[in-house]
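chain and backbone:
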Amino acid sequence: MEDLNKYLQRGLLSYLFPSNLELLPGISEIYELELALLESKILQKEEIIKNGAFFARVDDRFTRHYLMCKGEPIKLPYYSSTKLKDFFQKNQFKTGYATHGLFPYRGKFHPQMIKALINIMGLKPGDIILDPMMGSGTVLIEARLMGIRSIGVDISPFCRFMTQVKLEALTISTKPIINALKNSEKVFSFFEKSMSFDGNNYFEDSLADQLLASKTDKKLDEKEIKSIFNFLSLAYLDSVGYSERSKHKSHYEQFKAILERYLFVVEKIQRSLKGSEKELGEATALEGDARCIPLDDTSIDGIIFSPPYSFAIDYLKNDLFHLKYLGAKIEDLQKNMIGVRGERLIEKYRLYISDMKEVFSECARVLKKGKFCTIVIGTNSNQLSRILGQSVDRVQGLDEIMVEIAKTCGFNFVQRIKRQINGISNTMRTEYIIIFQRI
């Protein structure tokens, strides 16, 4: 009876983790516990404190991740729904922190999950990690925060632009942003009138001095002007989407509220990073094709990416306004973007599979032998059943197809971790984290 009481009084976590490790609040899903357990086995104490993803405290010391995320999670407009506020409160340590909170890109990774995967793959400061389909830049931002070098590639000019802004925002000067907020009506008017952007057409010096600096500020140099202009451009593009979806406020009021939120995000992460800016990893965001990665053979220490699944999200359609604003050639993207190519769904599917074989071959080429490549992919058997004209129970999931493709390209399958998707269960119900090792 005494032994029975002893077992009944202990919780599950006490069997998984040593008593000196305290999990972050809100860690409850099985995949999170799996990743946390792997972190606890692979990382040393100091590594958990500095770069761990799932722990709040080691002994009596708070982790950097906890300190980075604590406090108000994100500044939302007062008219935001209770549901939205609850989401960010509940996911305070999972997403929205650092500069991930700039621009809510559809289909993005949970940053906390990516941090854990970088740790589990054994990557350390000085190593180089690649995301050949970087999307909103989550892998690059996490790697930069962890002191790990990173390279991201994406065929979408908007994804490259968005990622670059988020990377620069970690160290951007906040005073010009504060001044821009004070002149928000004039800044908004500028973007409304310009309605075009070619990567070099940013504020002229005179306009920058007028909108971004007070009389006592030093004159901004060209690099600073461009970084601030890009930052404000992203806020404007973000406001376009909000103004289309919500009629609570005018477009200008949406822009001002978003710029306030962006400033809050930047000030919060910069307070957390103060004194350790030199430890940030070097990050490079490139516009390019994952089927032809512009890197040398065996030059990369690890790869993380999410294969696009455009039957669920049409990224070209979703980003059409932003791409046109940036002057992107839409017809070229239609012809070359993986998951979008083709007319009928069956043709899109076949081209997608063919393209992914090329992507995995390129990943195998640039990755060092013995190193790891991790993909995160969702699947929906009902959609695939309709596309292929097969019964649901006979359809092979995209996760299974990716495993078969990777094996033919020089990878060994290592592990598959199942993750339930919340929020879009009518489209995709399950996502898989799949880890491969380069042979």
Notes: The longest strand covers residues 367-379. The two ends are 52 Å apart (CA to CA).
